[in-house]
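FAQ: What does a ligand-bound record look like?

Like this one, built around nicotinamide-adenine-dinucleotide:
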Amino acid sequence: MVTFLNASDVAKVVRRVGPRRFWERMVEALREDFVRWERFDKSPRFASHSPGGVIELMPVSDGEIFAFKFVNGHPGNTQLCLQTVVAFGALADVATGYPIFMSDMTLATAFRTAATSVLAARHLARPDSRTMALIGLGAQSEFQAYAFREILGIDRLRVFDVDEEAADKFESNMASLGVEIRRCPDARTAALGADIVTTITADKKRATILDADMIAPGAHINAVGGDCPGKTELSRDLLLRAQICVEYAPQTRIEGEIQQLPADHPVAELHEVLAGREAGRKSRESITVFDSVGFALEDFSALRFLRDLARETGIGAALELTAAPANPKDLFSLLHPFEAAPQRVESRETVEISE
Ligand code: NAD
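The answer part, i.e. the structure of the complex:
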């Protein structure tokens, strides 16, 4: 049997653990997996592009557990009253190949993305950072605000979205978070004087949400929305001025902001920064960029963390996901009830005729 969590179960787990503890443990689960980087069998994700978006498969294994996530990215979906990003994922036991855990990952993607942003910002942003600009106030935005508040103490937000209704929704969802929220008329005003700038917009094009002249020395940029070939948020000039950190360079060079730069442009990988092999922030004046695209290892961490929480809390359902014949060599035995089915139909007809 596979333990299965749907989105309501994931929300129940978060409530049971408590949001602050959940964020702390999520960030710690990610850190633990990033620092054992060499143990993972890594590859850039498989991406199937179409005019409206992308469908991606994200596999990774540490030799004991294999994980994969299915995720899409369709920026036009909200016009159809559908989400831009939906996801689900599973864990399997490498020794037997059997699936052991499965979960909705629409919520988990938002959680793990924000937790990875915070993990990176802990090493890349100035430690005295208090103000964050948040540009793009869609489905992911509250998770970013929440994680930065709970883990890094960011209590002043300067926010902007081209859609006023998205900004209304964000303000209403964040009303009880205890952060000061200032709505700005454009991205430039939001970024002005911010210690951290998070870009998390959705548009399938080479957008310039941030340009070099919008960013003060010493700022950290958490660039999350540019995550596909031809889909970026930062200008090339800004990238050329910055010290850049990525999750997994072979994937980010295809999908991230750095697709705009030569293939040998120097970048640090997050695991190197966490292990102290690469500097996070080189000086107080440096502009740092975390060029986030989302890597399979983060989904591995999120899935194993949710599996542990499902065990701890008893939340979730047992799902008969794959066939389980009593005799493993007799898969055909599972068809026996179907073979019997026509006889049952015949007998019902017989009854009807006799009536
Ligand atoms: P969403 O569609 O719910 O929200 C996106 C918001 O961006 C919308 O409110 C839209 O109005 C706004 N926007 C678009 N263009 C803008 C602009 N020029 N200026 C300001 N606001 C603008 O999408 P979402 O689920 O919140 O995802 C946001 C982005 O994050 C997507 O591009 C998605 O692919 C990406 N994402 C990245 C990761 C990662 O790991 N890096 C994970 C999840 C999602």
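Follow-up question: can I read anything off the structure? Yes, for example: The domain at 2-107+298-319 is CATH 3.30.1780.10 (ornithine cyclodeaminase, domain 1).
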